[in-house]
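Quick one, tokens below:
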């Protein structure tokens, strides 16, 4: 399962260490069980929120729109066109076959598009924003009208409340132009998958075939923890405190 690389791992390790220390103190030394139990409860509950939002890495992408003369769909989630790093503030290099994606020609009348891009986050995340670097050259093939959906299982999707209905057209200066990200924020949603339903491009009906493309997409969020280990250990610790308290009272 893909995880967000943050200080969460260090925080979780510290919490486990503190829990272990407190349990040892209660079992083998005379202490104040009620006070220790209170501290254990605080640490136990805080362990579920000791994370920080960051770019979700290891995302995979697939599409129903095929591949044209550009790179494969995976290029829009691998950071290949972001030399300064995979962040929302990074500028994307001009589109190349190794850092962007363009669809196969579509049979729909210009500028209509009827297709999807699915993003698998690799696990369950609490997502509050995503960034899009639209195609810059030719910018006529950039994604225009869109609807966004989310899913927790990759099968059942529902509309993203507060999600965008369109993207801004890329700058279209040249193949060497750098493109800033367009960032969309919304109330946190728990999801393992995102879906872009692409409805149109910026093609006015002249020149280019009916294509659509993107340069990069990135998601910002927090990995939703699997609490089973903390739950079991926390319950064991609290039971140990209660057992020690009963022993001291007899």
């Amino acid at each position: 399962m893909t995880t967000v690389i943050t200080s969460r791992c260090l925080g979780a390790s510290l919490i486990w260490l503190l829990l272990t220390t407190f349990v040892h103190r209660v079992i083998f030394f005379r202490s104040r069980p009620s006070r220790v139990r209170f501290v254990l409860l605080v640490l136990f509950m805080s362990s579920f929120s000791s994370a920080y939002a960051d770019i979700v890495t290891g995302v995979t992408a697939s599409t129903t729109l095929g591949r044209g003369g550009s790179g494969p769909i995976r290029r829009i989630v691998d950071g290949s066109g972001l030399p300064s790093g995979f962040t929302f503030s990074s500028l994307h290099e001009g589109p190349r076959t190794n850092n962007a994606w363009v669809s196969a020609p579509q049979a729909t009348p210009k500028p209509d598009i009827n297709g999807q891009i699915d993003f698998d986050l690799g696990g369950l995340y609490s997502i509050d924003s995503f960034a899009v670097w639209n195609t810059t050259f030719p910018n006529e093939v950039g994604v225009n009208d869109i609807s966004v959906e989310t899913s927790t299982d990759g099968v059942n999707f529902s509309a993203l409340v507060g999600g965008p209905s369109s993207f801004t057209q890329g700058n279209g200066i040249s193949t060497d132009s750098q493109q800033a990200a367009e960032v969309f924020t919304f109330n946190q949603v728990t999801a393992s998958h995102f879906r872009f339903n692409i409805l149109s491009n910026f093609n006015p009906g002249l020149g280019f075939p009916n294509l659509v493309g993107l340069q990069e997409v990135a998601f910002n969020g927090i990995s939703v923890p699997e609490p089973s280990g903390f739950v079991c250990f926390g319950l064991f610790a609290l039971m140990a405190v209660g057992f020690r308290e009963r022993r001291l009272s007899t």
